[in-house]
Amino acid sequence: MGSKQTPYRSSHTKREVKKPILIIGEGETEQTYFKEIGSSFKIKVDPDLPSKPDYENIFKRAEAKFDPDIHLHVFCLIDLDYIHRNKKIGEYYTAKDKILNKLKKKNLTVIESCPCIEYWFLLHFEYTYSPAYDCSEIENKLKRHIPDYKKNMQGIYKQLYGLEQKASMHSKKAKKHRGDSILKGICTLQSNVTHTDVDILISYIKDHAQKRQ
Question: Could you tell me the residue ranges of all domains in the chain?
């Protein structure tokens, strides 16, 4: 457990920056959000939705579709709420280690959100951290800031525009809190504790956009 992910490259050749970023996610919400981001930054983002959007099929899709001659990098978006709910967190980490080891020579990064990507959206407005939130609770908190929020909402990126730095700061704070708690034995890597890696993906997209200029 704990395979090292391939770090994304901070510099790209002229040929590389023309390649799309492949993003394989679990739902239409992620697909819509990253399409809007790609359009905003005028870069090639290829959001992909497997026919069965669970972690096993996401990893299979990444392995089958990702071609380093075509794509610059592949990101697998994983929401952990249903994995915890179905008590498959151990199986998930085993599968994650397997795909990272198998594709360790390729540019692949697993982006987790616990419980769901809405936690990343919420961090644009407020900091919250808990070992017990489920996705419905996060969505209810998010609706205090975006009252008409719903899954696959069009224009979600515009609703969050300008708040990415705040969200990234909150995300890093949550991950530090989680890391400190793991070191202190309060929780484990497999505990249902709020965190998200979407800030890593957003940082990559912004860096990629700058290299194209």
Answer: 16-212
Put simply, whether the predicted model's pTM sits higher than 0.85 gets the answer: yes
| Residue 75 structure tokens | 């990101």
- Determine the angle formed by the axes of helices 28-41 and 198-212, rounding to 10 degrees: 30
Per-residue model confidence as pLDDT tens digits over 118-173: 999 999 999 999 987 899 999 999 999 999 999 888 999 999 999 999 999 999 99
Query: 182 φ, ψ to 5°?
Result: -65, -45
pLDDT band at 191 (very low <50, low <70, confident <90, very high): very high
What is 16-212's CATH number? 3.40.50
One DSSP character per residue, the chain reads --PPPPPPPS---TTGGGSPEEEE-SSHHHHHHHHHHHHHHT--EEEE--SS-SHHHHHHHHHHH--TTT-SEEEEEEE-HHHHHTT-HHHHHHHHHHHHHHTTTS-EEEEEEES-HHHHHHTTT-----SS--HHHHHHHHTTTSTT--TT-TTHHHHHTT-HHHHHHHHHHHHHHHHHHHHTTSS-TTS---EE-HHHHHHHHHHHHHHH-
On the question of pLDDT at 11 being above 50, the answer is no
